[in-house]
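Work through this protein:
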Amino acid sequence: MFTRTQHPKETPLANAVFWAARKGNLALLQLLLNSGRVDADCRDNYGTTALMVASYSGHYDCVKELIMQGADINYQRETGSTALFFASQQGHHDVVKLLFEFGASTEFRTKDGGTALTVAAQYGRSKVVDVLLKNGANVHDRLNDGATPLFLAAQEGHVTVIRQLLSSGAKVNQAREDATAPLWMAAQMGHSEVVKVLLLRGADRDADRQDGSTALFKAALKGHNGVIEELLKFSPSLGLLKNGSSALHAAAMSGNLQTVLLLLDASADPTLPNENNQLPVDLTKSERILKVLRPRFVNGDS
């Protein structure tokens, strides 16, 4: 278990070390560290080390110098972040490899449960994800709210990373604590290519979250027609959902004519009332949408 140690008091020399690490000034860094008057593990008031700064900035030679001078590779700052976390976040795969060579661990977590892999996935750092997975990172890591690396990549639209994670055993339907699945999140964000990949890899097309909405319902509400087209290839439910409404109701509320037409063409029923006994036609003021819903309603009712 990591134990906080007291920070050495910040000094002008320590500040100079931080500056050199941030700027990648190897000559100055060596001069300062070789002077014997400043420690390689000097830290600021938040526990940030020069190694973290150099790793974040991607300065390979400075990172190596600090390691050779005895810097603690796995030290955690107040937030729980390590040098590996910062290098992973910024996509510096060469620095990540170097840190692993000298004993960096993938086990350390930030206060919100984040790891090097979760942050690399979130930022779409595919080369770093590859290095992390090859060095023992857990593809099933979860933030405190239950979000997995796959969920975070789906949220941000990082298709390459999603393919990497799925190939490494990530569970395509692993939901967050609030029952939000990667597919639902990708649909909400409008990432149609992600939705396509997740569906092809077995994502549950009708998985709903705690509010009863599905990926199709959310995409219809947002007017993400590319997502809707992908979802419709897998015959999702067009009937009433657990939230008491249908995707067509959501489409009517969105005011997006193309969304309404896509669902109607997929045989969504405009005569189906929601739990409040409202028809899709009752939920829009758009004249263009009213025109396409009313004739079908009349025909369906006759």
